[in-house]
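DM from R.C. (forwarded with permission)

"hey, sorry to bug you on a friday — could you get me a structure for this? deadline for the figure draft is monday and I only need the backbone to look sensible"
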Amino acid sequence: MPFETPEDLESFFEIGDGTEAHVTDGQKFGRTFPVIFDEGSEAIAVYDDTSVEASDASFECLTSNLAGVKRGMRVTFPNAEKHEGCFGKTYEVARWKVEGAGTSRVHLKEL
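My reply, with the result:
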């Protein structure tokens, strides 16, 4: 479903409606914002006929929330519930890229 206005997109990612990510550099930078977490995995080919499953955790969020976020920063999900894959885990920002109009996907490395 495409969003017709920037306000539509912002209302989709409102605080209090779902999972929130807290990103910090452990010093001065810290920000909490709403995300859509994906516990995904990826098949990695080891040989022609053999592959292993690797974690590919990520989240999607408003690109505007990522100002100042850099590779290596720590990510937690303070309001995650026990049934969510990110519950109680700490991640590191591996990379991020623009996904669509106004949104980006942040790929994570579990620590």
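R.C.: lifesaver. The chain has a mean pLDDT of 85.
me: no worries. The beta strands are 20-24, 30-34, 36-38, 41-47, 50-55, 58-62, 74-76, 90-100, 103-110.
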